[in-house]
Amino acid sequence: MLDQSKTDKITTDLLRPIRLNKAFVLWMGFLGISLVICLYAYTLQLKNGMVVTGLRDYVSWGMYISNFVFFVATSLIGMLISAVLGLSGAKWAAPLARIAEIIALAFAAVAGLVIISDMGHPERLMYVFIYGRIQSPIVWDITVVSVYVVISALLLYLPLIPDMKICYNKLEKIPKLNRWLYKILSLNWNGSLEQEKIIKNSTRILAILIIPVALAIHTVTSWLFASTSRVGWDSTIFGPYFVTGAFVSGSAAVIIAMFFYRKNFKLQDYITDLHFDKMGKLLVLVSLVYLYFNLNEFMVPAYKMKKFDAIHLNDLFAGSYALMFWAVQILGLVLPILLLLFRKMRKPLPITIIAIFVIVGAWFKRYIIVVPTQEHPYLPIQNVPLNFKIYSPTLTETLITIAPFILVLIIITLLSKLIPVIPVHESIHQNEETQNEN
Amino acid sequence: MFRKHHFIKISLTFLITTLFYLHSFAQNWDIPDDKKTKNANFKFTNQTISEGEAIYTKNCMSCHGNLGKDNSLKTLNPIPPDLASVKTQERTDGELFFIITTGRMLMPSFKVILSEEERWKLTSYIRSLNKKYVQIVSETNTSKSNLIKIKMDFDSLTNKLKVDVKANETSGVVSLKDAEVMLFVLRYFGKLQIDKTVRTNNEGIATFNFPKDLPGDKTGNVDLVVKVSDEIYGEVETQSKFKAGIPTDKPSLTEKRAIWNVLKKAPIWIIITYTSIVLIVGAVLLYIIYSLMKLRKLGNN
User: Fold this and answer.
1) Nearest Cβ partner for A143 among B73, B259, B278
2) Which residue from A433, A277, A428 is spatially nearest to A340, judged by alpha carbons?
3) B53 φ/ψ angles, rounded to the nearest 5 degrees
4) Superfamily of structural domain A4-437
5) Which element (helix H / strand E) includes B186?
6) Residue A202's closest CA among A192, A213, A194?
7) Kind of pairing, strands B148-155 and B160-169?
8) Burial label, A436 (beta-carbon count in 10 A; 0-12, 13-18, 19+)
9) Mind spelling out the 3-state secondary structure of chain A?
């Protein structure tokens, strides 16, 4: 009897956020208006060309590509939490898997759009398919990002099938269209053992498949840089360096999302202090690995200070990028690691604040990887105007860079208003298991 | 103390005179009067203007910018003037031709790179925005250049190339004395001048020393171009093949399959790796979709 009431409580708790309220409408309105402003900036770019940005012959990959790398990076967390932790049997991570998958899907899907903003005219994307060469990391990147989006969508969807049925059954007061959608998406779920088995197997296959694919997407993204002979990019550890960096920004994103879901959706019983504590430890772990790669990436060339490396590194360590460089390393990496070693700092509020520092640092880290290198070419063009040599992003460019973030927020908001962010079916299942054990 | 003062004084004097000299130098090009009055021997038409524009875009625009837009490369010193400016347009055709031909300091000489005809076509383009410009066409007889016959002779023992310049006048064959002769070899990106510019001797013969180590094609052939300029006969060019180079048989970098080659010549291992990965992942995804369809069917029963 107790069992049933508990199950009902779980269902109502987790389905409660799925409704339209004032806060949602206001929030979406705000996002919508912001998006329109950013899209206006994009029309300016379409009309006048890339001169509206700060991109010139020297720095042709600026904020857009930094943004792209950041988006691909953040999306990798889906693989880490739902696949690696899931397969290794870390039960605590199960309630977070869907949040991680939502973040993964939103960031990966929008990453492709970010690339288009850097191409100038959007129809140029076609040329990649028409004239693309199979030898080019750009073609690999497009392939692997699209595959990752599909797998992430499936990994989000599969465990959702039973929940769709629950939504259909329990949510009767929602618009007809939504109910119809739930019905279609629930694929005639009836909870039979056979169906359970199919879901379990398929999820397992995808969880295994997504690991190499996710590693590939960020490794290939790093090869876009590492396969070029340029100071600061010409590095053999760029693949793992990018992948570990990706886990850092992704973990931070999940922590921030957890905080907001817990607060706004009243999920204190499901996203507990324990989850923040564990995520905090995970963040420390991945940050330490990332710090180790940073040490290699900067220490080894800095020890030798080869002529061209020296120009680049001096600019980072003590030159025009020094402030950004050290702020990113210290505020975005070293301090968070130190702070999160303390249990108190892994409580929801402090860890969320730390995560915000980490994620902002992660964005600027991408900027530091992408931009300064291009200001120090091996073969400089002679007599170029100053704005070729020193990249300074324009307002229009900044707005176009913000647009993908708004898009990601819109996707995440819509998804969390359509589906329960904590798996309902699984939570009930786990609850039953623990009760049986007692 | 004294020595130091002295030194500064001398240096200053020297500096000021140099600056003064440079200053006056920057003002005017020393163009001989006979060059100033030189004119093209063909009429400037829309055809010559558009051909001139193409040459301009390739050779001049990087410094001088677009004609009349005042967007030349301002970081250079001296700043290359906009060639549609009044100052430049006040020059005679002969002056423009001379400047393009000889150049000075930052302004390159195009004597070797462009033919006389091309340099006149440039002049016609530079004039194209000037409404007040009236062309004076040179009276010189252009048909005289048709009379010139050039004979090239390569001696592989001494590695010397002998150029014999004659003109078939009605009065008989005459040797062209004191004509300017340049020798070039055709390379990937244009003409490479060989040896110095030489003048023909009394027999109309100019001799060039040919380098021993110039790479030729598979059989050692190189394409040689001889350019003869003469006050009376004008400019004439001929081209012919000689076995004057070292046989070189390097496969072109884009001949075999390679990372940098076109899609059709991609390395086999990349094609296999890429396609097999795409196929395997695609197959797994299809299997998942098939499983979902099965799941749906199960629910129907």
Assistant:
1) B278
2) A277
3) -60, -40
4) Formate dehydrogenase/DMSO reductase domain (1.20.1630.10)
5) strand B180-187
6) A194
7) antiparallel
8) exposed
9) CHHHHHHHHHHHHHHCCCCCCHHHHHHHHHHHHHHHHHHHHHHHHHHHCHHHCCCCCCCCCCHHHHHHHHHHHHHCHHHHHHHHHHHCCCHHHHHHHHHHHHHHHHHHHHHHHHHHHHCCCCCHHHHHHHHCCCCCHHHHHHHHHHHHHHHHHHHHHCCHHHHHHHHHHHCCCCCHHHHHHHHHHCCCCCCCHHHHHHHHHHHHHHHHHHHHHHHHHHHHHHHHHHCCCCCCCCCCCHHHHHHHHHHHHHHHHHHHHHHHHHHHCCCCCCCCHHHHHHHHHHHHHHHHHHHHHHHHHHHHHHHHCCHHHHHHHHHHHCCCCHHHHHHHHHHHHHHHHHHHCCHHHHCHHHHHHHHHHHHHHHHHHHHHHHHHHHHCCCCCCCCCCHHHHCCCCCHHHHHHHHHHHHHHHHHHHHHHHHCCCCCHHHHHHHHHHHHHHC
Q: For the packed helices A348-375 and A307-317, what is the interaxial angle rounded to 10 degrees?
A: 140
Tokens for A425, please give them: 């079916």
Closest C-alpha among A349, A345, A358 to residue A248? A358
Distance CA A388, CA A375 (A): 8
Fill in the amino acid letter for B192. Answer: L
Phi, psi of A63 (to 5 degrees): -65, -35
Restricting to B residues 61-80, those with a Cβ less than 8 Å away from any Cβ of A are 73, 75-76
Structure tokens at B31: 């163009």
A296–chain B Cβ distance below 8 A for any pair: no
Between chain A and chain B, the number of residue pairs with CB atoms below 8 A apart is 70
Would you give the distance in Å from CA A273 to the centre of its chain?
Answer: 23
Report the residue from A195, A205, A209 with minimal CB separation from B298.
A195
Cβ distance of A135 and B267 shorter than 8 Å = yes
Pairing of strands B180-187, B222-230: antiparallel
Mind listing the pLDDT tens digit for each residue in B39-68? 998 899 999 999 999 999 999 999 999 999
- pTM value > 0.80: no
Exposure on the CB side of residue B289, measured as CA atoms within 13 A: 9
Token pair 């590939």 in the structure block, residue: A216
pLDDT band at residue B1, thresholds of 50, 70 and 90? very low
In whole angstroms, give the CA distance from residue B293 to residue B301. Answer: 13
A108: which 2 tokens? 């990966």
Query: Is residue B178 classed exposed, middle or buried when 0-12, 13-18 and 19+ CB atoms within 10 A define those classes?
Result: exposed
Query: pLDDT tens for residues A320-354?
Result: 999 999 999 999 999 999 999 999 999 999 999 99
pLDDT in tens, A93-105: 999 999 999 999 9
Pairwise CA distance, residues B89 & B12, whole Å: 38
Nearest to B96 by CA among B37, B182, B169: B37
Cis peptide before A350 (omega within 30 of 0): no
| pLDDT reported for residue A382 | 74
Most A CBs within 10 Å, among B79, B281, B286, B301, to test the A interface: B281
Residue A210 CB contacts under 8 Å (≥ 6 apart), including other chains? A78, A79, A82, A83, A148, A151, A152, A155
Q: Count of CB atoms within 10 A of residue B240's CB? A: 12
A199–B295 CB contact, under 8 Å: yes
Task: State the smallest CA–CA distance between residue A131 and chain B in angstroms.
Answer: 8
CB of A42 closer than 8 Å to CB of A406: no
Of B75, B76, B266, the CB nearest to A133: B266
Q: What is the mean pLDDT of chain A?
A: 93
**8 Å CB contact of A135 and B270:** yes
3-state secondary structure of B164: strand
